Amino acid sequence: MPVAKADLHIHTRCSDGMASIEQVLEFVERQTGLDVIAITDHEDARGGLRARELAAKRGYRFEVVAGAEITTLNGHLLGLFLESTPKSFRRVERTLEAIHSAGGLAIAPHPLSWTTRSLSKRTLDRLCAAGEPGITFDAIELANPSPAGAHAGRKAARHNASAWRLPATGGSDAHHLKCVGTGWTEFPGKSAEDLRAAILEGTVAAGMTRYPSLLEVGLHRVAMQLAWGYSATPRKILGGSRGHGKG
Asked: pTM, whole model, 2 decimals?
């Protein structure tokens, strides 16, 4: 069976990313070899749902998974295969339960990171040890080359190998086009459903490459993203909305 690649952690201008949905889709089609991507905007799955619809309509060679990066009281949590957005600022147990009851998968992104809201070792220890059905993680993101995840990845990998034993995934955590595809998940098959099955079966592997430097991305773009992120993400949490097509 062929091995495919998926980037499971991409942001667009539907939250704090700097590229529109259309720009991300065109970049993936023309500039990467990715077979599946997940759009995981902060606190909102509508961007992913729109991207999935557009990708199918335009006949792109890759598939899109609708997701979201949800802020819980314990840290960020990636929900994949979503049809609606779980509520923010609840205990991670409740968010895990909401994702799974809706048929989604839950991944711990950039674990142990101190540069962004992340799940702690204590939280991961507690939930993985309990192993309560529906209130656990389907995978853990161990290949995140962004500033949010790179510094803590090795430490998280050691703990995962010795205690948590979760399937390892990768995602770029891209907020700029040049970063898309720098973190990935390898899985047997080709489709989004193959990816889902591989995560549940633990037949995934995480990989990453060098993240573009600030100069490569563009200092002005980085500054714009930081400014936009501080204004856009709180609006999502408080229930605001933006356009989910080109904007």
From this structure: 0.89
